[in-house]
């Protein structure tokens, strides 16, 4: 029996999980959550984990997989945009001892999480017919807007294609949305709109502020949401647009899995008719988008399962 330490380092919270494996399946042993920005470095965060008496540690695990919200270079370095410190495993043996270790993008973990027990309870947002030999897309709003695709290889498995599409330009349409764009840029000071400030917790606060004049944090907005309020309708439309754009970018004919804390805490934001209507809105490829199934995976620990699954594959 081997032990895998999985971590999902987000802009708001860092989650840790200890898994055991017989080489075929994963068994969740324990979990712990810590506030990311309370710590001045990754090593300070890890020291706190050790101090909690967690059953898995960097040196007591056969495999450690750290998933982080940001682009990863050579599986050892990341400078996440929403975290005030970098992660550097260039001298990993000094940190991990003899155990294996990988640093991966958090949405690589989310995508592989769709292959685990964490996705068993996923809810259907939009029906469709999954093509098993096609790409699967994972997209999710939280502190940022994450993306990853699993692309089929020639051996019955999948290759993860990380993405930073959340930092690509986000298009607004029509006079009302263009007025919102001016509001958004004035409030954020950004030179252009992109997914990380539109379809995220921050974006939820901003669109609510534009529509109501209320200045609330994401939790405050969530408490005000109803099925028929304008904030829900607008945000659902923006979320559907982000999912459509990514589905077209990777031809996600195996399906789109919506993950992340915003939808997990507020399912109505993706179950709303505006989401489905926007997802299939395409002058040329509406027919293709109507064939793609879309699911909501509201298991907020799916990134941990995906990181552990990645570790399991490498242990094999």
Main traits of this protein?
316 residues; alpha/beta; Nucleotidyltransferase, domain 5; Hexokinase, domain 1; six-stranded mixed beta sheet; five-stranded mixed beta sheet; 13 helices; globular; D-glucose binding; kinase
Q: What does this protein look like?
A:
The structure is a single chain. With 316 residues, the protein is an alpha/beta fold. It folds into 2 domains: 2-106 and 301-315, Nucleotidyltransferase, domain 5, CATH 3.30.420.40; 122-296, Hexokinase, domain 1 (3-Layer(aba) Sandwich). Helices cover 37% and strands 24% of the residues. The chain has 13 helices and 14 strands. Helix 6 (201-212) packs across helix 7. This is Glucokinase.
Q: What is the C-level CATH assignment of the largest domain?
A: Alpha Beta
End-to-end CA span: 13 Å
CATH topology of the largest domain: Hexokinase, domain 1
Strand order of the largest sheet: 9-14-13-10-11-12
Looking at the structure, what is the overall shape?
globular
What's the structural blueprint in terms of helices and strands?
Layout: E1 2-9, E2 13-21, E3 26-35, H1 42-51, E4 63-68, E5 72-73, E6 77-78, E7 87-88, H2 92-96, E8 100-105, H3 106-113, E9 123-126, E10 136-141, E11 145-152, E12 158-163, H4 174-188, H5 195-198, H6 201-212, H7 218-224, H8 230-250, E13 255-259, H9 261-265, H10 268-271, H11 273-279, H12 286-291, E14 294-296, H13 302-315
Parallel strand pairs: 1-4, 4-8, 10-13, 13-14
Antiparallel strand pairs: 1-2, 2-3, 5-6, 6-7, 9-14, 10-11, 11-12
Protein name: Glucokinase
Pfam family, one: Glucokinase
Keywords: Kinase, Transferase
